[in-house]
Amino acid sequence: MTEDDFVANLAYLRKRLERKLEGQTIVPQGFLEETVRANADRFELTENDVQRLIKHLETIYSTTQKDGHTLKTAFKDWYGKEKRAIDFHYWDRLKAYWTQSSVLPADVIRSVDKVTDEIMGLVGNPKDKDSWNRRRGLVMGHVQMGKTTNYSALISKAADAGYKLIVVLSGMTNSLRYQTQVRLDKTFVGKSSVSDATQAKLYEVANILKGTGATYSPRFPFCGTTQISDFSTATARSIGAHQGAFAEPILFVTKKSPLVLEKIRDWLSGLNNGQQLDLPLLLIDDEADNASINTSKDPDKTTKINERIRSILKTCKQFTYIGYTATPFANIFIDPDSIDEILMEDLFPADFIKSLDPPVNYIGSQKLFSDGAKLRE
Fold first, then answer.
1. Other CB atoms within 10 A of residue 299 CB
2. Which domains does the chain possess?
3. Can you tell me the distance from the alpha carbon of 89 to that of 101, in angstroms, rounded to the nearest whole number?
4. Using CA atoms, how far apart are residues 132 and 135, in angstroms rounded to an integer?
C-alpha cells in the first residue's frame, strides 16, 4: 500500500467511523479493528496494512486529554453567548484540517476547542469598546505538549471574533521565530508568508472547506513578517494599513529583539499619528519566562525587552496579553503592584492563569524521572 493509498483508506475509514460514533470521541474495545477488517477485502489490504491502519486509528480515537484547571478573577464570560453570532472562518477550517487530515486525535481536538473557548471568555471582547481596556493572563503547559497548537486555535478564534492586530513573540532566536512562523502559516495564515508571489504556496488548511458551500472562498490574514524575515518597516508599509482599514487581521511573528520590538511599536504608533489605536491587540508571548521579565535591580528602571513589550501593548486602547510557558515561576512572581507612570502595569497575569493538561500519550519528565516512573511497553 502506497502512502497515498494509506491516506485515502484512512480518510474513508474515518468517515465510516464518524457516522457510526455520532460525535463520540472514545470508541469501544475492538470497534476499530472490526471496522478495518470489514473493509479489508474492498481495498485489498494485507495483514500489515490492516495492522498499520488499526494502530493509526487507535492513536486518533484512544488518545484522551483532560481540560486543565483555571484560576481567574471575576470577569463575565462574553464568548459563550457571542460565539453563536460569530462568522467562523479561520477556526472552522483549522478544526476541519486537524480532523480530516488526522493531525490530532479526536479527543485532543475536543479538548483544545473547549479550552480555547474558555480562554476566549477570559480575554477582552474585541467588539466591546466600553467594559474593558486591558487583560493579562498566563497559559501553562508541559514541554513540547501542544502549547503552539493551543494558541494556533486561540488566534484563529480571536481573528474570527474581531481581533485585527495579532503579535506573537516566539523566543530569542531566528530558528524559533522561523519555526513558529511556519507553524502559524500552516494553521492560521493558510499560505506561505514569503512575500515573493513566485515562492508563495497554499497550505492544505486554506482549501480544506472547499466545496462545503457555494459561496466559500479562502481568506488570508496579512503577514507583517515572513518565513524569510522578521519585522521590517518596509514590509509593514507594503500592507497599506491604517487605523480602521483592516479587512483581515495582521499577524506578526517576531523574536524578542529590542530593536525589532521597537520597530513594531513605532509602526503601530504611526498608524494613528502617535495616538492610541482604537483596535484591540492580542499579544501572545511564547516562552514568556524568557527575557520578558523585568529583571532590573533598580525598581525605577525596566529591562529593554520588558519595556518594548509593554510599550507595544500601550499603542492600543484595548489589549490582551497572554504568556505561554512550561516554566511559569518567574511570571507568577512578578510584582503585581509594579506600575510605571508611562508603561502602566507590568506583565503579571492579573486576570487569569490556565494550566493545560497533556494528552495521555505524552512522554515527559514525570514519566521518565519521577519516583516509580515506568513507561508502558
1. 9
2. 3-62 (no CATH), 69-368 (3.40.50.300)
3. 18
4. 8
Pairing of β 69-72 and β 352-355: antiparallel
Q: Are the CB atoms for 69 and 43 separated by under 8 Å?
A: no
- 3-state SS, the chain, equals CCHHHHHHHHHHHHHHHHHHHCCCCCCCCCHHHHHHHHCCCCCCCCHHHHHHHHHHHHHHHHCCECCCEEEECCCCCCHHHHHHHCCCCHHHHHHHHHHHCCCCCHHHHHHHHHHHHHHHHHCCCCCCCCCCCEEEEEEECCCCCCHHHHHHHHHHHHHHHCCCEEEEECCCCHHHHHHHHHHHHHHHHCECCCCCCCCCCECHHHHCCCCCCCCCCCCCCEECCCCCCCCCHHHHHHHCCCCCCCCCCEEEEECCCHHHHHHHHHHHHHCCCCCCECCCEEEEEECCCCCCCCCCCCCCCCCHHHHHHHHHHCCECCEEEEEEECCCHHHHCCCCCCEECCCEECCCCCCEEEECCCECCCCCHHHHHCCCCCCCC
Please give the model's pTM, rounded to 2 decimal places. 0.87
Dist CA 335 CA 353 (whole Å):
16
In angstroms, the CA 126 to CA 247 distance is 15
The set of cell numbers assigned to 167 is: 503579535
Q: CB count, 10 Å around CB of 15?
A: 11
pLDDT tens digits for range 215-251 = 778 889 998 899 999 998 777 776 665 555 678 899 9
Mean pLDDT of 306-324: 96
Give the cell for residue 257.
529583539
CB crowding 206-220: b at 16 or more within 10 Å, else e: bebbeeeeeeeeeeb
Q: Could you tell me the strand order of the sheet in which 281-286 lies?
A: 69-72, 352-355, 134-140, 319-325, 281-286, 165-169, 250-254, 222-223
What is the per-residue pLDDT across 316-327, written as a single tens digit (0 to 9) for each?
A: 999 999 999 999
Residue with cell 496494512: 49
